[in-house]
Amino acid sequence: MASCALGGDETVASTLNAVARRHLRRNFSLGVINGALFNLASSLLDPSLVLTWLASQLTSSNFLIGLVMPISQGGWFLPQLLISGYLQGRKRKLPLYVAMSAPRALCWALMALALFLITDKAVLLILFYTLLTVYSLGGGVAGLSFMDVVAKAIPSTRRGTFFGWRRFLGGILALGGSLVVRYVLDERWGLAFPHNFGVLFFLAFLTMSGAMISFGLFVEPVEPVLNQSVALLGQMRRALRLPRRDANYGCFLGARLLATAAGMATPFYIVYAKRVLGVSAGMVGVYLTCATLAGIASTLVWGQISDQRGNRGLILLANLVGLATPLAALSIPLLASRPLSLAAQAPHAFAVVFVLSSIFQTGLVIGYHNYLLDIAPAEDRPLYIGLANTLTGLTMLVSAVGGLIVDLAGLVTLFWVAVAFYVGTLLLAGRLQEPREQGSVHKS
User: Domains of the chain, with CATH numbers?
Assistant: First the structure.
C-alpha cells in the first residue's frame, strides 16, 4: 500500500530529515491504517446521521439536536490553541496523543453500557452529551499532536495521497459500517431502541481503540523547536498578531470559518428528511451507504488534485460542492408536491444531499488541512494549526444557533443561511495564494 502510494519516487522525501526518510513507508502505512479505522468508527457513529438520530429519539429540542455536530466536531478543534504553547516547546508530540487515547476510547465503552443498562431518556441524554463532550475535547488535545507528527513524517507533495488513502480505505470499511448501521437500526431484526445504539457504540469503541494503537506506533521524527514552551498569555498575544502579520493566513482563516458556519445546516438534513418526507430509521443506513460510496469515489480524486494542482483549487472546488448541498435539500422535497409516482421517490432522491455533503466534507478535510500545513512554518506550526483549529471549534459551537434559527424561522430559512455562508467562503477562497506556485511551501 505505502509502496504504491509513494510511487517509488526517491525525491519525494527530500524535504524530510533522515529519521523521517528512513521510516516513511512504515509511518505512511500506520497512518493510513489509523485513518481507515477511524473512518469505520465514524461511520458507525456518524454525527450528522446516527448521533443526530439518537439525539432526536432522546429529545424533541431543536437546540439540543443542533448541538450534536458542534460538540462532536467543534470539540476536536477547540482546545488546540490553548495547548499549542505547551506543545510548541516539546521535541516529541506523539506522547500527548498516546496519553489521550485511553480516556477517549473509554467514553464510547461507557456510553455502550449506559444504553444497555439505563432506560430513562433524560439520564441517557445527559450521559450522551457529557461523554460526547469529553471524547471530542480529548480528540482536540490529541489532534494538534497528530497534525504536527504528520507534518514532520509525511512530505508536502504526498500528504494529499496520504489523506486520500486514509479516507479511501476508510471509505471501503465505512461502507461495511453503513450496512451494519442499516441492519442494527432496523428494529425488524430484533434490536430495539436503545440497545441497537449500544451495539454501535461498542463496535465503535473497538475500532477506535485499534486506530489509536496504530498511530501510537509511529516513529516520530524530531525537528528544531522553540527553546521552551510558550506561556498561555504570550501565545495568545502571538496568535492575535498572526493574521495581520500573515495576510494570506488571515484570508485562509476567514474562508475556513465561513465554511464551518455553513455546516450549521448539516445535522438538520436528516431531521428535515424525517419531518418533511417521513423517512424511517432504516433510511439512515441507506443515506449513510450512499454518502460512504460518494466519499470513496471522491477521496482519491481530491488527493490527486491536492498533490498535483495544489490545495487552493481543491478548496474552491470543494466549496462549490458545499454550496450545492443546501440547494439540493431545498429542491428535492418539491417532488413531494408532484404526482404520486414522483412523490414516492422523494425520500430516496434525498440521498443526493448526503452524497454532496460527503464529497464536500472529504474535500474540506484534505484541502484545508493540507493548505494549512503548506503555509505554516515548522517552528510555528503548533501556533498556526492551534489558532486555526480553535477558531474553527468556536465557530462550530456558535453554529449551534442553527437550532434556534429552526425554532424561530424554520428549516428552510436555515438552509438559505447556509447558502449565504458558502457564497462568502468562495469569495474569500478565491483570494488565497497557492504557495507551491510561489515556491513558498514551508519545509517540514
Answer: 19-429 (1.20.1250.20)
pLDDT at 441: 46
C-alpha cell at 147: 497534525
Q: How much of the chain exceeds pLDDT 90, in percent?
A: 23
- Is there a contact between 132 and 68 (Cβ–Cβ < 8 Å)? yes
> Which residues are CB-neighbours of 163 under 8 A, at least 6 positions away?
35, 303, 306, 365, 366, 369, 370
Angstrom distance (rounded) from CA 204 to CA 187:
20
Taking only the tens place, the pLDDT of each residue in 101-126 is: 889 999 999 999 999 999 889 999 99
Question: Distance between CA 151 and CA 221 in Å, rounded?
Answer: 10
| Cell, residue 136 | 471530542
In Å, what is the CA distance from 223 to each residue of 4, 231, 364? 27, 21, 28
Can you tell me the distance from the alpha carbon of 374 to that of 364, in angstroms, rounded to the nearest whole number? 15
pLDDT of residue 12: 47
Give pTM, 2 decimals. Answer: 0.68
3-state secondary structure of 135: helix
CA separation for the pair 20, 130 (Å, rounded) = 39
CA separation for the pair 383, 88 (Å, rounded): 8
| φ/ψ (deg, to 5) at 406 | -65, -45
